[in-house]
Amino acid sequence: MARRRQIYEGKAKILYEGPEPGTLIQYFKDDATAFNAQKKGTINGKGVLNNRISEHVFTLLAGIGIPTHFIRRLNMREQLIRQVEIVPIEVVVRNVVAGSLAKKLGIEEGTPLPRTIVEYYYKDDALGDPMVTDEHILAFGWASQEELHDMADMAIRVNDFLSGLFAGIGIRLVDFKLEFGRIWENEYGRIILADEISPDGCRLWDIATGEKLDKDRFRRDLGGEVEAYQEVARRLGLFPEGDGSDVLDLETHRKKRGK
Predict the structure, then answer these.
(1) What is the CATH number of the domain that holds 30?
(2) How many folded domains does the chain comprise?
(3) Per-residue pLDDT at 35
């Protein structure tokens, strides 16, 4: 069988040429990075869990009318997705003060925000993904006014939906990042949700205890990263018979057999 052509490799995923024009295969890695890749490590099984969680969330979002690049999950680590032209902007939605916002403004982490905040960051690792305004985005042509409106509108809709989804399973959606891409239909470009939604890009805190169930466990050397990701997947109902450890054990067994 011919080896698939690699299109791109990022910090957490690899994109391969898809089986049909306009499609790609997205592979979820176990690699973990933080602070713009200044800290690197591995969370064994993270890719399997993020694949399942992101599949679930994207499927639910499609059900409420959010257009996404997700087509279907192929196996434990791969998804079939639509090929998009990525908009070089990360959209960050904040509901609670945490992370860089707490440090920059000197506000205690965990402080609820009086209103949801939407921030934009220019995707450039060499520059440290600097925060930008809508004026920068429009001036440099990274997105049009209509595209920016669509991204902000979808970000708020996603936040409203996911806040309710996670609250229903005892998790507070503190903040999260989204990426968007363009798909072209003749001369018309349309914005759709891309990348992934998982504990890698969301801050998720247990409502009752405040326990962190996301990548902050890796960033802050708290340990228990896999268990936190498993807990999110379990609460979402993705592993009704357990915590997902049996799925990770199965993958480990397959790797040892060379499959």
Answers:
(1) 3.30.200.20
(2) 2
(3) 82
